[in-house]
Amino acid sequence: MKWFVVRESETDERYGKCPEDRGLNELLRFGVVNLDKPPGPTSHEVVAWVKNLLGLSKAGHGGTLEPCNGAG
Fold this sequence. Notes:
This protein is mostly helical. The protein has helices spanning 24-30, 43-54. The chain has a domain at 35-72. The longest helix is centred in the last third of the chain and has 12 residues, at 43-54. The chain starts with 23 loop residues before the first helix and ends in an 18-residue tail after the last helix.
């Protein structure tokens, strides 16, 4: 199998663009907020806080937001 790497190329904006070229609204709409949830509040509460802080009508979480207990 051969790999071809294109070092520089133009991307048609109909098919996407570099993250650094996206505005805040696009980043929030299509992005991910990575956070380290502290012990105490529930995952549901944290999602509600994020929605409120960022003025979003929809938000969710993937997986658990519970802190690691050190067992691994």
